[in-house]
Amino acid sequence: MSGRHVVAVDESTHLADDAGAGGQVDVEVDAAVRAAAGTGVGQSSRADRAAWLRALAAGLELHRDELVALAREETHLSEARLRGEVVRTATQLRFFADVIDEGSYLEATLDAPDASLVPPRPDLRRMLRPIGPVAVFAASNFPFAFSVLGNDTASALAAGCPVVVKAHPGHPRLSRRVVELAREALQGAGAPSDALGLVEGVESGVALVGHPLVSAVGFTGSTGGGRALFDLASARPAPIPFYGELGSLNPVVVTEAAAATDVDGIAAGLAGSFTRDGGQYCTKPGLVFVPEGTGFEDALCDALGTVGAQRLLTDGIGAAFAAGADRLVGLPDAELVWRGAVDPSTGEASDAPATVVAASARAVADDPHAWLQECFGPLTVLARYRDRTELDAAVAALDGSLAASIHHAPGEDISELVAALAPKAGRLVFNGWPTGVAIAWAQHHGGGWPATTASVHTSVGATAVRRFLVPVAYQDAPASVLPAELADGNPLGIPRRVDGTLVSGHQS
Ligand code: NAP
Questions:
Q1: Exposed/middle/buried for 307, CB within 10 Å: 0-12, 13-18, 19+?
Q2: For the purposes of burial, counting CB atoms within 10 Å of the CB of 11, is it exposed (0-12), middle (13-18) or buried (19 or more)?
Q3: Averaged pLDDT, 121-138
Q4: pLDDT at residue 473 greater than cutoff 80
Q5: Which of 115, 194, 278, 504 is surrounded by the fewest CB atoms within 10 Å?
Q6: Direct distance between the N- and C-terminal alpha carbons of the chain, in angstroms, rounded to an integer
Q7: Judging by DSSP bridges, how do beta strands 124-130 and 109-111 pair with one another?
Q8: Looking at residue 308, what DSSP letter applies?
Q9: What pLDDT is attached to residue 232?
């Protein structure tokens, strides 16, 4: 990082008194954050915010053609993929509206006073409240679903937090247009339009993380960038939570019995999964343990023969992919199994060729630092194991991932494998592929370092809102100051825990 980045954090703590000191960038960031903080979103009702989220979803869908055309120009992703992504983004917004309507996310909990206990228990009522203004760093690889109106923004707004987005430089015009439409939609739904702001440029991102009124950060991007910003968030005079989704290998284990049962089907599934949209997914399977001598490599090469090429999102990501692939191919134990130099559909040379590198599982276990690094793009590493001891040693060396997958035969005992992989990943996939993350109440899209900077949280699914909420307990509070969610008689009809027992909204 440049010295400027470090300096900006200290300066930003004085923005209120000395707005000129940090330059134009800090002035713009300060204006955006103060406008967001002044909106009163934290005091809005759940019903109002649910309506705002639904209005944002409708606004996106209404302008889908225009937005997809812009995204096509800026990202090189296919029209079909982008059209689907707009639908996903609208679905996410509506999903979070449903989550806050339902109300259990508030963890409303009531304990009646009991003087006979030791120590005596006062009247205690606890719930979650919005943390405050949130900074969101948009991702490059999902120009809609993890960008201006993506998961982080949707879950923060749902929680009751205004948002200032740091646009990703890979799709600046799209980001500006989406924020313009979103602000119109918010206004149309009776919301303060400043509930959503946008800043651009690397310096703005640094100033945003350091701004004293920003209370939390959501980030999707590289391990290096995420770590640098996480460190800035932690080094502030008042540190704030930083929810970074960074690099993930998403290991896959193919058991011997599975390979014996369907080697062609599994190889074809892998070919589709690791090359999908140029392999530019945080859930791409980047490391696959295969039993030696089962013909898996041949089956995979056959399947890759029909895979087309994809230009990567930005020149920087293309260059990082080329460098990462060359590094892996150059490792002492590496064998280049496949590099698709030519797109089979066009006959043209490929900028980012689908690439398969193989090594022994022993080599991976012996030098995890060299082998266990994400290479963002259409590349996967096959780690060949001869027996269970070799597989176990390599699995033990794995860092945290968003997902881990097991391909197994029907009826096969995989309990030990599950026990070994469960601490390594936020989602376990059986006889399937990690790409494709459903939006659901039970979803978990998180994992240990370096997959995320906050292993207890998720960025997809209902509990994503939890990142932007903090608990408060009211002790012996007069009824007049209690939020309606904690009032006697449960006037809002939300699920609550009362004296230790879960009570649905309809029961109380
Ligand atoms: P990136 O370089 O980390 O950038 C993401 C965002 O963070 C951008 O807005 C960037 O701002 C900002 N940023 C990065 N480093 C910063 C720093 N030191 N100080 C201040 N701001 C900083 O990620 P990317 O451009 O999306 O892609 C690069 C790599 O990220 C990929 O090759 C891949 O490894 C990884 N990636 C991971 C995921 C995932 O879901 N896990 C998704 C996409 C990408 P500026 O660009 O304006 O500098």
A1: buried
A2: middle
A3: 98
A4: yes
A5: 115
A6: 55
A7: antiparallel
A8: P
A9: 98
Q: Are 387 and 292 in contact (CB under 8 A)?
A: no
- 0.85 exceeded by pTM: yes
Tell me how crowded residue 115 is: count the other CB atoms within 10 A of its CB.
8
- Please give the pLDDT value at position 351: 81
Query: Measured from the CA of 166, which atom of ligand 1 is nearest?
Result: 9
Q: What is the DSSP string of 21-74?
A: TTHHHHHHHHHHHHHHHTT-GGGS-HHHHHHHHHHHHHHHHHTHHHHHHHHHHH
**Residue 2, pLDDT above cutoff 50:** no
339-351 pLDDT, tens digit per residue, is 987 776 777 777 8
Cis peptide before 122 (omega within 30 of 0): no
> Domains, the chain, ranges and CATH?
8-246+455-467 (3.40.605.10), 252-430 (3.40.309.10)
| Amino acid at residue number 500 | G
Does ligand 1 lie within 6 Å of residue 166's CB atom? yes
Q: Per-residue pLDDT tens for 372-394?
A: 999 999 999 999 999 999 999 99
Strands 124-130 and 469-475: antiparallel
The residue whose C-alpha atom lies closest to atom 45 belonging to ligand 1 is 202
Q: In ligand 1, which atom is closest to the CA atom of 168?
A: 9
Would you tell me the crossing angle of helices 202-210 and 223-235 to the nearest 10 degrees? 40
Tell me which residue has its CA closest to atom 40 in ligand 1.
282
- Condensed to tens digits (0 to 9), the pLDDT of residues 190-243 reads 999 999 999 999 999 999 999 999 999 999 999 999 999 999 999 999 999 999
Catalytic machinery residues? 245, 282
pLDDT for 25 beyond 80: no
Closest CA to 403 of 380, 421, 379, 381: 421
What is the percent of the chain with per-residue pLDDT over 90, rounded to a whole number? Answer: 90
Which amino acid makes up residue 491? P
Element (H, E) at 234: helix 223-235
- Sign, CA dihedral 258-264-269-274, equals positive
**10 Å Cβ neighbour count for 292?**
15
Residues 215 and 367: beta-carbon distance below 8 Å: no
